[in-house]
Every structure is written in C-alpha cells, then in structure tokens.
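Field reference: sequence -> structure
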Amino acid sequence: MTGPAPAAAVWGGVELLERAIGYMLGSLRLATEADYTAPTPCTEWDLRALLDHMNDSLEALQEAVDVRRVDRRSGPAGTGDPVAALRDRACRLLGGWANDPSGGDVSVDGRPLTARVLTSAGALEVATHGWDVAEACGARLAVPEALAEDLLRLVPLLVTAHDRPGRFGPVVEVPATAAAGDRLLALLGRDPYRRPRRARR
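Structure field:
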C-alpha cells in the first residue's frame, strides 16, 4: 500500500473480527458431516477443504496474537471434526485478541503490519467464508447489513487487481441499490443471487 494510511476508524480491528466470527458461527450450525463433500463457491474446495482452510486461517491469527508473527503455511488437512475445531479456535482466538497485552505490530512473512489491519483483514475473510459455508449447506444466510457496510470500506484497501483471478473471482454485477451484504459478496467474486447449489429442504 502506498500513500497516506486510511483513517483508523476504517479498520474495525478486534471488534470487527468478533462480529465476523459471530456470523461465521451461525453458518457453522448448518454444517453436518453429510455436507462435507458438498461443493462451495471456492471452486477448488468441497466443504471439508474449506473448513480446513478456515481452521488454518484462524490458527495463523492465533499465532499473530501469541507470538506477534505469522510465517506459517497451510498445514495438512485435519482428521477430526472440522466444525468443532473451528468453533474452539474461534473462541480461543477472540479471547486472545480481547486480552492482547501489547497491541503492537505483527510480522507477516517478515513485514510489519498493525494488529488493527491484520484483524480487520481476518474479519473480511471470516465473514466471506461464513457465507460460503451456508451456501455449501444449501442455505442462504445473509451477511448482516452493519457488518457488511463496515467490510465494504475495507475491500478497496485489501483486494487489488493482483488478487484476481486467484484469491477472488471477477466482480459480479449487482444493482447499485442492492443490500450491502450482496454488494460485498459481488465485489469478492460471489453471486449473491444465485440459488444455493443444494437447496436445503
């Protein structure tokens, strides 16, 4: 990033991460073992692979608060219950950041990043994959509007043209009057109006 740093208010930090995790936990209530082979909006992953990725991401955020450093790479897929593991990680993660003793910078692959920016980026990923989980389970669980509005302000700062294709798909066109949650998903390469791949009965 170049130029002046955005106002601190844009970066919601731990408070934003807490809200995103709350939304994600609601999505996890939908997931059963029978859903683990279901496709997800992340075309290379079924739900089990997505849950393993989410566990890995939360573990990296835990490392950030524990040792102020993130330099790990994705680990092997878990062998236990990925939903239970993710719930446990989420609770421990929030406790760690809520009691963060230093609030100082975190080294990410050798580069310093403020804790506020790191946890805000984590919130964007957690909320996005929370929606992905619900969609894979055949449900539509909208991102709460207030949360989506706050995350929308972060997208131009965290997602660049270099992230497409790769981390995100092309922007999906939606009406300017669309709900904040739908606009957020569209910017992140998801079609908020597409029917879930497997409609839940």
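Note: The chain has one domain: 8-187.
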